Amino acid sequence: MIAVVDYGAGNLFSVANALEHLAIPYQITQDPGALAASDGILLPGVGAFPDAMEMLQKRQLVEILRKMAKEKPFLGVCLGMQVLFSQGEEFRLTDGLDLLPGRVEKLKAPGLKIPHMGWNRLELARDDCLLTRGLPQDAYVYFVHSYAAVPRQENLVAWAEYGGQVPALVWDGACCYGAQFHPEKSGETGLMILRNFADLCQDAARRKKE
Amino acid sequence: MLAKRIIPCLDVRNGMVVKGINFEGIKEVGDPVECAVAYDRQGADEICFLDITATHEGRKTMADVVRRTAKKVFVPLTVGGGVRTVEDYRDILRAGADKVSVNSAAIRDPELIRQVAAKFGSQCVVVAVDAKRRPDGGWGVFINGGRIDTGLDVLEWVCRCEQLGAGEILLTSMDADGTKQGFDLPLTDAVCRAVKIPVIASGGCGKLSDFSEVFEKTGADAALAASLFHYRELTVGQVKDHLQKSGIPVRK
Fold first, then answer.
1. Domains annotated on chain B, with CATH
2. Residue B206 and which of A47, A63, A200, B53 are 20 to 30 A apart at CA?
3. ipTM for the complex?
4. How many structural domains compose chain A?
5. Which of B96, B123, B249 faces A144 most closely, judged by CB atoms?
């Protein structure tokens, strides 16, 4: 069972629709017990960095999410990916969940439109991340964002070209992942990434039992 | 680099896809959910529903159509038609739409653009603009299917929309619409130069080269078509094959 964190994020139901379509068992929850009992955690998010952190704090989810992301597969989507980083610069400097080192800064794409909105091609920075398993060579995914993470090179799994390398998939090298794009709106490619994440959760749960 | 988007549009009335010419002789021709799924399979980058019921009951039906579509189609959904208030916006977004397009209500009350952009984010605010060439030069903004001249200048209006927080312009040329002679290149080019937000070109496409032309000769980010796809004169796949051969980036 994947826990989809319910903290008022706008794309919660789109993510749930995609999991439903893939017949992946999930639960929409903000209950610490349910989060602890889950096989993996999906953190959705649309909107602004400080609002998201405030909503997580209000529900007292910050500490438990930080703990869970080190124990079991954890995927942050869009703003849910951005808050994995140490700090965000949107509106004001705000502390994030600090699971990945780096800041989230205003997207720099000279001469290009901001937000970075639309379908862009994933370019793999490394090929050992299980989330990208089986992806076609020309994998396009759907982005909508004005801020972007500045991760360490070793945390970068895939990027998209938009006035530079825009981080698309990040990973702490253990079990914490983030997708800047919307897998739930990225057609077959996005569904494949969610399926890969569900497989990771299942494998982790099986290992734990053994 | 961003791919150029191909967006099929479905006209929906009372929960059914309808087709007709100039709102006359309208026939119900199918289930919008089924049509959206078919377009998704063809490779549509986004699907647009235009609600032509424009009554309270009709909008409720539309929300249900969106809800059912969002369970089966995993590309962005844009919904337009009859949206008048912040509450209308919220209802459609909650049902699962990613963007909502607004037309005459924004002209009556431009503050609506600012309100919905502040509340839901610019990324979901599409302003639909129906443009018609004026005899004395330039283009005017029309409403009610091109019957009423609002007196607004298209280029001034799109700039105002951008300032108010619109995230995208859906630009329809009333002159080109239905002609199948190609997109209105001078209009599309002028609007793309006037704003920094994405522009969707609509109206006039009839053949493959119309699509490559609008992307080669203007800054359009996307092209929208209804009848062409609906009557299967072309599939989204054919259009994308053609664009790819022409060296235009598309999602395949």
1. 5-245 (3.20.20.70)
2. B53
3. 0.91
4. 1
5. B123
